[in-house]
Amino acid sequence: MIVADNSLISYFTIEGEFTEEAVAVREKDPVWAAPLLWRSEFLNVLWLTGHQQILSGLSGDLFAFAPDRLGVPLVTHDGEVLTGFPETAVHPSDFLDRR
Q1: For every residue of 39-96, which 3-state class applies, written as one string?
Q2: Do 43 and 58 reside in the same domain of the chain?
Q3: Same structural domain for residues 40 and 67?
Q4: How far is CA 44 from CA 17, 28, 34, 41, 51, in A?
């Protein structure tokens, strides 16, 4: 078992300069532990490496069900989600105006 930091997890997941090395580490020891903070750091890496479209797509897929299943709006600044889900998604300023 090893403790993997966010950089190792990121290179293992996202193709980059050290991906081969990260894969080799995983092959040598497949049992990784990481502090819970890695999740937030990983999302930051996704954002900074230009994966905004992936996150936007996931946001739409994950939250498009909100009105049907939960009866609540999806409040977002994401323009693509606002355009793609006009019945579901609402801009924060519009949401604030409703209440």
Answers
A1: HHHHHHHHHHCCCHHHHHHHHHHHHCCHHHHHCCCEECCCHHHHHHCCCCEECHHHHH
A2: no
A3: no
A4: 18, 27, 16, 5, 10
Query: Domain span at residue 13?
Result: 2-48
- Amino acid (1-letter code) at residue 41: E
Same domain? For 43 and 9 the reply is yes
Same domain, 57 and 91: yes
Per-residue model confidence as pLDDT tens digits over 25-79: 888 988 888 878 888 888 888 877 765 555 555 555 555 555 556 667 777 777 8
For the chain, what is the domain count?
2
Could you tell me if residue 32 is left (phi over 0), alpha (psi between -120 and 50 degrees) or otherwise beta?
A: beta
Q: Considering the entire predicted model, what is its pTM?
A: 0.51
